[in-house]
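Subject — a protein and its fold

Tokens — whole-number codes for backbone shape
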Amino acid sequence: RYGLLEIPLRFKGSRKTYPNRVFLLDTSASMGQKGLAKTTRFCRALLSNLPRHGHFTVIAGDVKARFFRKKMVSFKTKKKVLLFLKKQTPRGGTNFEALFRALHGIIKDQTDIIYLGDGKNSLGEMDPDRLQTIFTKAMAGKKVRFSALAFGNNPDLSFLRRLARSNGGRVIHLLPHQNIELIAKQFEKELLRPHLQQISLSFKGITDIIRLNQYDTASGKSLFVAGRMVAKVVRVLLRGRVEGKGQYQYKAVVEPH
């Protein structure tokens, strides 16, 4: 018989709010007019909560990248960026290479880079390893986090999650029917919630294991594992690092569902 394990994670930690933000707005044709309207609305919701002492810019991208400003500017210009967002229309394909190369010379230390789109790359460099290298070079050693709002019923989450995991960012999937302002607030909280990284698991009493959530897991959430039962109970040993630093260990005897 097979069983499902729920491993609750309760650990303490903290992460700082970065004062600077760069928004990468996907304006490709695959977003459609309705999709782009929703992601620009989400961008406006995040802009309304920006700290006064920080800096930001917006880069819209499809075949090529278009800048609100070619440098990060004071949040006093937030009214002007709303006009920039309003002018965007869906066109062409998604070009992550162009978006990432546009970041050269713009990034300040302690910046959250937030991509808003469906993640469906269709132009320029297509190899995920090379794209990640292009992104890393554009960061020029600065302290940054790449996060994403993945929009639509079938976004390409694999590359977005990979890039986010490499620097402590977050990926949230926004479905068309969900409340944008509510999801924006959840996204802000998620950026501050400590996550368990470099997770390793060992079990006694279960084989043929499938880990159902494959990525970093936040405090207050659960890790789910399924497998074939070879005993009535399962002994679990989980290890990881909180925000890649502080060590965390969880031992338990679990009766699967």
Q: What stands out?
A: The chain has a mean pLDDT of 90. DSSP finds six helices and 14 strands in the chain. The longest strand covers residues 195-204.
